[in-house]
C-alpha cells in the first residue's frame, strides 16, 4: 500500500483542526469545573490554542516569512503517528477528561517538534519550536488542574 503524499498544506490543515478541537475541549472543561482558578486556566488555554490556530492559518495563506516551506511542498512526515486522538465520552469523569487533554497537549508538542524538524533554521522553525514549548506548558497546566481535581486537599491536609 502506497502512502498518500503529504504536503505542508495538509499538515497545517490537520494542525488547524486540532487547535479548534482543543478550543472546544477547553470551553467544555471550563463549563464543567467550579474552581475559579481552573475556569481561568481553561479560558487562557482556549485563547492560546486560538492564537496557535491563527498562526497556522497565517502560514497556510503564505504569511509566514523566513524559512517557511512552500505549502505544496511534499514532505516525508509520519502524520499517522500524530493523528489519532482520544475523545471524551458522555458520562466520562472529569479527571479522565483532564488526562485526555494532557495527552493531546503531549501529542501537539510532538506534532510541532516534528514539523519544526522538517524546516530549515530560521524564523519559521523557531516559531514552530516555540509552539511546541507552549504545548508542553499547556500539558503542565492541565496536569496541575488534574491533580487538584483528582486528589483534592482536605481540611486535614
List keywords for this structure.
157 residues, Ferritin, two-stranded antiparallel ribbon, elongated
Detail the topology: elements first, then pairings.
Blueprint: E1 6-7, H1 8-32, H2 36-60, E2 74-75, H3 94-117, H4 123-150
Antiparallel strand pairs: 1-2
Helix pairs in contact: 1-2, 1-3, 2-4, 3-4
The CATH architecture classification is: Up-down Bundle
Number of helices: 4
Gross geometry:
elongated
- Helical fraction equals 55-70%
**Order of helix and strand elements from N to C terminus:** EHHEHH
Query: What distance lies between the first and last C-alpha atoms, to the nearest angstrom?
Result: 58 Å
- The structural class is mainly alpha
- What count of domains describes the coordinates? 1
Q: Mind telling me the CATH superfamily name?
A: Ferritin, core subunit, four-helix bundle
**Count of individual beta strands:** 2
Percent of residues in beta strands: under 5%
* Poorly predicted residue ranges: none
| Spatial arrangement of strands, main beta sheet | 1-2
Assign the CATH topology: Ferritin
Q: Give the assembly state of these chains.
A: single chain
Give the overall average pLDDT. 86
Largest β-sheet summary: 2 strands, antiparallel
**Whole-number radius of gyration?**
17 Å
Give the C-level CATH assignment: Mainly Alpha
Short account of what is shown:
With 157 residues, the protein is an all-alpha fold.
Describe what you observe in this structure.
The protein is mostly helical. The protein has one domain: Up-down Bundle (Ferritin), CATH 1.20.1260. It is built from 4 helices and 2 strands, in the order βααβαα. The chain has a two-stranded antiparallel sheet. The longest helix has 28 residues, at 123-150. The radius of gyration is 17 Å and the shape is elongated. The mean pLDDT is 86.
Amino acid at each position: 500500500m502506497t502512502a498518500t503524499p503529504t504536503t505542508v498544506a495538509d499538515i497545517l490543515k490537520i494542525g488547524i483542526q486540532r487547535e479548534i478541537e482543543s478550543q472546544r475541549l477547553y470551553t467544555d472543561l471550563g463549563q464543567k469545573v467550579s474552581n475559579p482558578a481552573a475556569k481561568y486556566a481553561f479560558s487562557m488555554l482556549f485563547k492560546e490554542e486560538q492564537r496557535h490556530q491563527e498562526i497556522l492559518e497565517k502560514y497556510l495563506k503564505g504569511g509566514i516569512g523566513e524559512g517557511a516551506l512552500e505549502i505544496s511542498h511534499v514532505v516525508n512526515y509520519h502524520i499517522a503517528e500524530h493523528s489519532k486522538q482520544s475523545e471524551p465520552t458522555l458520562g466520562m469523569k472529569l479527571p479522565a477528561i483532564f488526562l485526555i487533554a494532557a495527552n493531546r497537549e503531549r501529542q501537539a508538542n510532538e506534532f510541532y517538534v516534528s514539523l519544526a524538524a522538517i524546516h530549515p533554521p530560521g524564523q519559521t522553525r523557531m516559531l514552530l519550536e516555540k509552539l511546541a514549548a507552549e504545548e508542553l506548558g499547556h500539558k503542565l497546566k492541565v496536569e496541575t488542574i488534574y491533580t487538584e481535581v483528582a486528589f483534592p486537599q482536605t481540611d486535614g491536609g
